Amino acid sequence: MSGAADLVIETAGLTKRLGGRDVVNGIDLAVPRGSVFGFLGPNGSGKTTTIRILLGLASATSGDVRVLGESIPRALQEVLPRVGALVEGPGFYPFLSGTANLLRLDAADRYVSPSTRRQRVETALERVGLSQAAGKKVGRYSLGMKQRLGIANALLTHRDLIVLDEPTNGLDPQGTREVRHLVRSLTEEGTTVFVSSHLLTEVEQICSHAAVLSAGSLVAQGSLDELRRSGEPRIRVTTPDVPQTHDVLRRLGTTPDDDGATPGAHSVTALLPAGLAPDQVVRALVEADVRVNGFSVDQAGLEDLFVALTGEGFDVVQ
Amino acid sequence: MSSSTTAAAPRKSAGGRFLASELSVLFRRRRTWALLAALAAIPVLIAVAVRLSSGPSPGRGPAFLDQVSQNGLFVAVVATIVAIPLFLPLTVGVVAGDTVAGEASTGTLRYLLMSPVARGRLLAVKYVGAVVFCLAATFTVAIVGTLMGALLFPVGPVTLLSGTSIGVPEALLRIALVCLYVTLSLLGLCAVGLFMSTLTDVPVGAMAATVVASVVSQVVGQLPQLEWIHPWLLTQYWLGFADLLRDPIVWDSFAANALLQAGYVVVFGALAYGRFSTKDVLA
Ligand SMILES: Nc1ncnc2c1ncn2[C@@H]1O[C@H](COP(=O)(O)OP(=O)(O)OP(=O)(O)O)[C@@H](O)[C@H]1O
Ligand SMILES: [Mg+2]
Q1: Mutate which of A76, A110, A162 to test chain B, going by most B C-beta atoms within 10 A?
Q2: Are the beta carbons of A103 and B4 separated by less than 8 Å?
Q3: Beta-carbon neighbour count of residue A287 at 10 Å?
Q4: pLDDT recorded at residue B5
Q5: Which CATH class is domain A4-229?
Q6: Against a cut of 0.90, is the pTM above it?
Q7: Is residue B281 part of a domain?
Q8: Are the C-beta atoms of B68 and B47 separated by less than 8 Å?
């Protein structure tokens, strides 16, 4: 493992057994300071469970956890004041207003100054666009408003680390965009942001680093560039001769994406056959009398990587 | 960020603020006021019923009921006696059973813990909140009772169980003493409720279990076959405040009750801490 000084979150062999099953299975997370770290994984892959352990809400079955350089759960009370978090959706008293809820949570924090409390609550509400609804009872908030309030709670004071578990859940397009701006401005203030999501485009837009979780195991981790490079490149052939193209590609050892060949399609996409350079593919196509109107090679998007790593099936892996 | 300076030097404050915030949340809930209103209805009903009925019906009904029409101060005492077996444990069970499970069910528990509040401190503050509610509950019954009594009946010197007579101010003091005794009696039940509340994320379950515990304890207390267990029952001294209405006051039952309740608080407080300090907060 690299030096702890530049890692904000560091786990070694983190495992959590729940209901007789390892829902988190020996993961080694390394979140660099100053990064926006995307924590990806399909539903039920163990993202929230991992976050709970990082924040001391649940205990690890085995493995070591360090957050902000300190061992968890031993140093929890020293670490948590420097961490803001939204975990598994917001949680508020429905009979209190947005402001009163934040004041309550802030009063529980013994490390912040009570004299700046009102001001900080106001600022946080403003940052998530809730100033207008601040006096309204949370029970009357919409889903997205509650989500925004949950984010505001993470922003009550300066934090070194902010953990956001699916922050854009229930947010409208403006809200989603504001979260992106917010994450950017937090990074500028020197805060490391750890954000879990299954929305890949979102992660691609805001993250500098990512890790992919699949059925409790970490299957990839690194900077976004590293991850993209690790994905296999794809080819796209524009041609009127779709069936012949399919035959050629299959002979070269790759399977075209759209196997049933949509009628009227004029292009074919597939993984670049292993061990072949793009020009060799083009030569093979031309030699088979395929009319090639266009040919391109694309690096895998994060989505392809994600699907490749976590499986195609829609069913939640158990 | 102006606040970054405060975060740079994390220094603990005394921590009375979380308790203040807990109490303010408790007493800003409509449910808390509904419970207190239900308790206040007891002395109102008693006073109105006695006032409307033609004459006293000696020998029947709760103790001191026949005294009410002569001296309004007895409304407070009678209402307290009526409230002790069921209504007080019911309302206290609701509040004590809700302490942890209620926070878990709204999802606020995880945010409190991440604020951060250490788990032991959370339990302590929650427990104190429930005890403050007990105080509010017993004094609500007594104060509303005294006011109703003063409104509908004559008020004057009270003859104590030992035969001596005391003036109205002294009598009010004795009533306050009874309230403290009843609150003391409920400390154990609060601890039981706190423990039940750490076992579940469903507040209604913890509330029901707490109320059932008090009912079972009282039923067992009525069975002579189980006499050997009686000294250990949570509810053993619940109605034992008669000694506070003598002159001079006999403190024996007060002391015995305090010892018993302290035992319950220690045992169930330890159980609650043992359970909660290692519990995975998954709600
Ligand atoms: N209390 C529990 N007992 C047993 N299993 C549990 C418990 N809580 C969660 N699990 C299991 O742990 C696995 C991981 O759950 P987790 O909430 O961490 O997933 P997630 O990655 O956050 O999913 P999502 O994207 O849907 O939020 C799931 O398969 C779930 O069934
Ligand atoms: Mg989740």
Answers
A1: A110
A2: no
A3: 9
A4: 38
A5: alpha beta
A6: no
A7: no
A8: yes
